[in-house]
């Protein structure tokens, strides 16, 4: 078991960038390795310290992640940068553990139907695989964090409603299986803010001092309302992608992840310190646009600019204190 | 003094459509009167009962509202439909009082600088004008509701931060001047959810059983997060425009009002009955697209469709009970 509390110190709200993994999950175009490296540098300059960098999947299925090892290697040049990579199975986790990536996300679905469609096995089999990944970690690289990412945690595009009690029970079983932390993902944008608030309170009860991740998509426009509810109810690790990257390539303009820069603005407006410089984050969006010229970037803050309230734009000294 | 509690019964959350007024405020194209009539019919079919129908302004300055009287006349064909028109000054209010429009919004700005730029007079002069409008109402049509809409209530594009205590004091002075209700407008999208929550609690203290309106723009992406905070803290009258109409015509894609259909979905996801049929509301969006083919319609729900959770799509019997 690894201690996720070092990478996610208690009492700090941490926004993670998932542009280079979830943002590219369904894309047909992706940045070069140099472009990914430039983006990571820009995110670091903006104060981000937690980035998803790719997936360990067969390169013939997901060529956008074929350079995941090189991308992980570039993180060493950026002090304090915490990399996260996704693994769908034991093989992927084994490959990830052979690198220096700090955290490995293993996906399991809250919906049995989606778990079978996505991973081609049952939830019970996915839980057994998670236990094997945790055991592998214990033997190969005990410091690596295993995060169990629970997809469809607030509703499923196949089965519809998802029972919160069942999700909590699954989260508990993931921790029992050896995960160091758990994430709840609103994969297809079914959640509403009161559902998030209720889940957040329950997760706090389950996880105690351990961090847990809220991974929201903006499919139906409620992404930031849900993020605000999470922040109001104790969630302190949230994911977002620059420009909301991660929509379906077959539906231009369809919303994917919540927009990282709008999420950072939300946190600032709520008086929550994240260590992120909003101006620099908007600049990072420009780096993404250079690296991926056809990316359909969404987001309101970059379009409208910061408001005339100086408190928002104040630089933070969080990182100088902790990194 | 009119009783706003009839049009806005206590204990009910009411979403108002502002497409035909605020949605057209800065447009260079607008629907024909027949198109506006078709839109009002579609909104009524979707369960909406509160609609902004236009402004009383000189037709040479705002030709999009030159048919406001005919639009008001069409409301009589739609049982239970409550029309709202905007007036910038005593002359406009006088003209509005000569029609059957149920409610007249008189605008005053929370920022002295913006009030002078927008209305070319001081806040004190605008308050005096509001008192004159209320007196005019008392003599001409005592049943007409006067709503004092406070622009820039959460931040101003000219002066920056706006003090909440000053806004509350201004709201109180508006009620003292004869307004039946007050609205707080985040005109340029400066607010965050905790600011809204705090203002909502204070407004409840000030207004008691009287309704007050939360009028949000989505300029920086926080519109629905702010709406959720309002709903969580006692606000029960919220404005939105189909497709978020109302952005700047010179900035394609710039967000205007919060998207009405996404707002209605938010309320449904929060377990709040509004009497709105989401499928029919999405159909109304199509009527708007027919009436205004070049309108840059935003919004996630119409693009993504309703989730597979049957509770959301259930028709409501609120209107059969109350209208």
Q: Would you give an account of this structure?
A:
The structure is a homodimer. Chain A has about 325 residues and is an alpha/beta fold. Chain A has a single domain, classed as TIM Barrel (Alpha-Beta Barrel), CATH 3.20.20. Chain A contains 14 helices and eight strands. The first copy, chain A, has an eight-stranded parallel sheet with strand order 1-8-7-6-5-4-3-2. In chain A, α8 (about 195-205) links the parallel β6 (about 180-185) and β7 (about 210-215). The longest helix of chain A has 18 residues, at about 125-140. The first copy, chain A, is globular and about 50 Å long. Residues about 315-323 of chain A have low confidence and may be disordered.
Q: Could you list some keywords that capture this structure?
A:
alpha/beta, homodimer, TIM Barrel, globular, eight-stranded parallel sheet
Short description:
Two copies of one chain form a homodimer. By secondary structure, chain A is of the alpha/beta class. In chain A, 41% of the residues lie in helices and 14% in strands.
């Amino acid at each position: 078991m690894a201690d996720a509390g070092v990478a996610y110190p208690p009492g700090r709200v941490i926004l993670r960038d998932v542009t280079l993994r979830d943002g590219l999950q369904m894309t047909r175009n992706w940045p070069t390795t140099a472009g990914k490296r430039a983006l990571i540098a820009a995110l670091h300059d903006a104060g981000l310290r937690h980035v998803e960098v790719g997936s360990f999947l067969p390169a013939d299925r997901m060529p956008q992640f074929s350079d995941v090892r090189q991308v992980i290697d570039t993180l060493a040049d950026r002090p304090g940068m915490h990399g996260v990579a996704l693994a769908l199975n034991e093989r992927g986790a084994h490959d990830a553990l052979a690198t220096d990536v700090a955290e490995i996300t293993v996906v399991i679905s809250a919906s049995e139907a989606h778990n079978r469609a996505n991973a081609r096995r049952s939830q019970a089999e996915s839980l057994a695989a998670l236990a094997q990944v945790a055991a592998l970690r214990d033997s190969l690289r005990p410091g690596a964090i295993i995060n169990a990412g629970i997809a469809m945690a607030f509703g499923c595009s196949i089965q519809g409603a998802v029972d919160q009690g069942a999700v909590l029970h699954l989260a508990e079983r993931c921790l029992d299986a050896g995960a160091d932390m758990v994430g709840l993902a609103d994969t297809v944008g079914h959640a509403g803010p009161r559902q998030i608030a209720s889940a957040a309170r329950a997760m706090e009860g389950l996880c105690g001092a351990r961090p847990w991740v809220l991974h929201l998509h903006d499919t139906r426009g409620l992404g930031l309302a849900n993020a605000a509810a999470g922040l109001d109810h104790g969630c302190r690790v949230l994911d977002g992608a620059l420009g909301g990257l991660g929509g379906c390539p077959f539906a231009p303009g369809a919303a994917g992840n919540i927009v990282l820069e709008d999420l950072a603005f939300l946190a600032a407006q709520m008086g929550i310190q994240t260590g992120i410089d909003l101006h620099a984050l908007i600049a990072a969006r420009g780096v993404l646009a250079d690296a991926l010229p056809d990316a359909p970037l969404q987001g309101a803050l970059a379009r409208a600019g910061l408001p005339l309230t100086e408190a928002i734009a104040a630089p933070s000294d969080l990182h100088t204190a902790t990194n």
